[in-house]
Amino acid sequence: MSKADSIVNNRAGNSVADGWSPIASHRLECVLKPGESKTYVFVLGYIENEDAKKYIEKKDAKPGLLCTNPYSKIINKEKAYELQKKFDSKEKVDAAFNALKKFWDETLSHFVIKTGDEKLDRMSVWNQYQCVVTYNFARSASYFESGIGRGLGFRDTSQDMLGAAHQMPKARIRERLYDVAATQFEDGSAYHQFQPLTKRGNADIGSNFNDDPLWLVLGVGNYIRETGDTEFLKVDVPFDNSETNKATMFEHLKRSYNYIPNHMGPHGLPLIGRADWNDCLNLNCFSTNPNDSFQTCTNKEGKNAESVMIAQMFVFVTPDYAAMCRLMGEEEEAKKAEALCKKMEEAICTAGWDGDWYIRAYDDFGNKVGSKDCEEGKIFIETQGFGSMAQIGADKGLPAKALDSTKKYLDSKYGICIVEPPYSVYHVELGEVSSYPPGYKENGGIFCHNNPWIIIGEVKTGRAEDAWVHYTKIAPAFLEDISDIHRTEPYVYAQMIAGKKARRAGEAKNSWLTGTAAWNFVALSQYICGLRPDYNGLVVEPRLPAHITTAEFTRKFKGTEYHIHVVNNNNEGEVKIALKDASKGKVTGTCVKANDGVKELELTVTVG
Description:
Elements: H1 5-8, E1 55-56, E2 74-75, H2 78-85, H3 90-107, E3 111-114, H4 118-137, E4 152-153, H5 154-164, H6 170-181, E5 193-194, H7 212-227, E6 236-239, E7 242-248, H8 249-259, E8 306-307, H9 308-327, H10 331-351, E9 361-362, E10 368-369, E11 379-380, H11 381-389, H12 398-410, E12 411-412, E13 415-416, E14 419-420, E15 446-447, H13 451-460, H14 464-474, H15 483-486, E16 494-497, E17 508-511, H16 516-528, E18 531-534, E19 537-540, E20 550-557, E21 560-568, E22 575-579, E23 585-588, E24 591-594, E25 600-607
Parallel strand pairs: 21-25
Antiparallel strand pairs: 1-2, 3-20, 4-5, 6-7, 8-9, 9-10, 11-14, 12-13, 15-16, 16-17, 18-19, 19-24, 20-21, 22-25, 23-24
């Protein structure tokens, strides 16, 4: 590449590439007189033909460079030429580009921050951009996944909504959540993945990932808080895409939520099924065949292995679920959920606490996973994140202890590792997690997806500076100085960074593919900046790092543009809110609600 033939020899070879990763190039000879300029427009596009019009008849075909088979068909390019005409002049290209800029200016205007920290301000823009791209392509169309073997994840897509609902049209979010819910079964479980074109569940993967149902509650709850669109809860949605078997979206949520207490294990914790968020923790697989798919192979009945993380998720989503119950006039269901939540929290504090951190799971034999009693895999990030986000055992100081243990054992200069110490041998009772090299992927890698759970937990535990330190370790804008190590785009999150036990620690893997963007946006916007959508208004509780003493936020929420001036005296101090014009809205604690019809609302927030 340093001495490309086409550059050195001043000619292009016009060769035909096939296989691997071919590239295309254009070569134009251009002679410019002094002061002269010329414009060239290059267009790369795609357009689909109807089946009956895909090809045209070919006459007197002869073999040539690009037609080695004279019997091959010729593609009908009529629609392609029509598309080209839309961009066949500088003026048309400029107009299209300006329209694209206008789209992004509007899309990215719903959350804007000016903090004086250039990298943070820049990251807030790129993070939202990645949220839109993640929504559009999910994990079904990327240069890491192809074909129809995967599709859109039920869990992944529900989480994507966390970073998209504030900036994308309501109709598109509703449609995607509808598609997700339509792959549910009547008992509340669901296909783990579905195909984006057919909207049908992926039978090759199937169901029995016991965390999936709770992600739908989280995704829909976030959408309702953001938009106030309670009518969506009344929309009829199919089970297993059957038009003859439907129930309201709220009924789907009810089935989702109650799936968990209907599938409990011997310690009073939820059964894990094939896996929970960590698809490589396969406690019912028990495979010794390298040709098996860990995620689809189940050699145990699945009546013993339990997930502490699913238990913590159950506690975390209960406030959303109970609030939606009350919106639907289901007070008894709300009270039932709150009672179940309290019982689950007690079980976690009893069977899910290991003295200094939350354990990860119980295997099929009833042994702890992610415990000081384990020789390897003593502590996992997932339960420290969800346990601290849900503030489980806060009255006993458990979240703070778990976060301290996270820093002591899991943290590194490149982010928080998923497990420590990594597994050095394969454990048939644990599955794929123990099959990777130490420091990579689920065996000790740094997942940018669950690092934000720790960031949120730190904020909720009252430790804003600790949250900020964790944030800057994985936020791409803060990694530009180590690009030679990180080796991926300086503006987009990757799925994973090689962990501290890896040979190339700090090297990022799989950018764009990841569902990381949404959770990092939640951590940034809702907890570091403290602007959280709520059923009763916009919660404003900034917990900015100490070096940011003043900031300006703009947040579009339910038809009102909130202009927020922040004075950050002490980021762990009391939050006080004052409206510039008290007649335009109401402040209840840290929750602000604009009056109906108010287009703009100005407020000053003093922290400490």
